[in-house]
Structure to design on (317 residues):
């Protein structure tokens, strides 16, 4: 009976690390994948530079997503609101590798006219994934 | 002379009762409920096709238009909307099956019949029926209205657009209110 009473607290303690790191697993998965494709160590600063860089026709990641990863962005043509990119404020971000790859493909091609290299993707992932302190 | 009054009365009755059917607007003639697109949106369609704009009801364009749009996602009105092959096929099938020329919905028929058979519009807003339904609305309320910007933003004025309902009575134009025909 006593042991049974401990079952719930124990299982919670055991499961917590798994749940809280779920997101990290997707990120790590992606980073490992990019390393396999030839990327070197992911660089947050390079990610930021790419994010804000202006390409042809004034296209850039920040044009729709803004420079602030915790803020809402806006589709430049339709005006549709885009939820914040930072997983710190939007838990769904970087949690599904299929979706991440889908958006990389579309948005890199549209912004830069080509797909992002594995290095660029790795840099962008660590830039987006950085912990952010949100001001209230 | 004897029957003049009765004949006049009969004619008047006939005219009065059939007037709405002949001269009334679409909604009056066919009832509010027949203006509703009723297809439930395929979840994949809703998810993949409402990131940048609302997921438009498939009943508003003919098969050939949807097929053309889905075959050209790499340049989707200036944006890249590429999909994985499986999702692309699923969505295309859904749109085609429920398109304007395959649907029994009254409004689909209006859309479909208004489009010349040698024309493949890519925009709902460029179909003759759409234009006809919106021809009295000034630019001031749409393109010059920061809260609307374009007729392609159905949901800006049609508050139930996302569930396929476009009836006039639920229209609220931001900054202007109801639309009084």
């Amino acid at each position: 009976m006593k042991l049974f009473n401990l079952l719930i607290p124990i299982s919670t303690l055991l499961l917590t690390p798994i749940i809280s790191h779920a997101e990290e697993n997707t990120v790590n998965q992606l980073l490992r994948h990019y390393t396999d494709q030839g990327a070197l160590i992911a660089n947050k600063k390079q990610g930021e530079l790419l994010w804000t860089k202006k390409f042809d026709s004034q296209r850039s990641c920040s044009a729709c997503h803004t420079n602030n990863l915790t803020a809402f962005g806006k589709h430049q043509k339709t005006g549709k609101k885009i939820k914040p990119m930072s997983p710190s404020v939007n838990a769904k971000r970087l949690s599904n590798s299929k979706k991440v790859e889908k958006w990389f493909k579309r948005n890199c091609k549209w912004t830069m006219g080509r797909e992002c290299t594995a290095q660029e993707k790795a840099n962008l992932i660590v830039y987006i994934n950085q912990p952010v302190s949100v001001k209230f | 002379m004897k029957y003049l009054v009765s004949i006049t009365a009969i004619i008047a009755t006939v005219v009065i009762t059939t007037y709405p059917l002949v001269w009334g607007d679409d909604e009056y003639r066919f009832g509010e409920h027949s203006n509703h697109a009723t297809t439930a949106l395929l979840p994949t369609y809703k998810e993949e096709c409402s990131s940048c704009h609302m997921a438009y009801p498939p009943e508003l364009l003919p098969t050939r238009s949807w097929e053309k749009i889905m075959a050209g996602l790499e340049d989707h009105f200036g944006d890249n909307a590429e999909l994985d092959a499986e999702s692309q096929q699923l969505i295309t099938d859904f749109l085609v099956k429920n398109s304007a020329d395959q649907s029994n919905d009254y409004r689909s028929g209006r859309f479909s019949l208004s489009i010349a058979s040698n024309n493949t519009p890519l925009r709902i807003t460029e179909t003759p029926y759409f234009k006809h339904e919106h021809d009295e609305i000034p630019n001031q309320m749409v393109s010059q209205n920061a809260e609307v910007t374009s007729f392609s933003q159905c949901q800006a004025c049609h508050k139930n657009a996302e569930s396929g309902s476009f009836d006039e009575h639920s229209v609220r134009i931001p900054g202007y209110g109801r639309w009084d025909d």
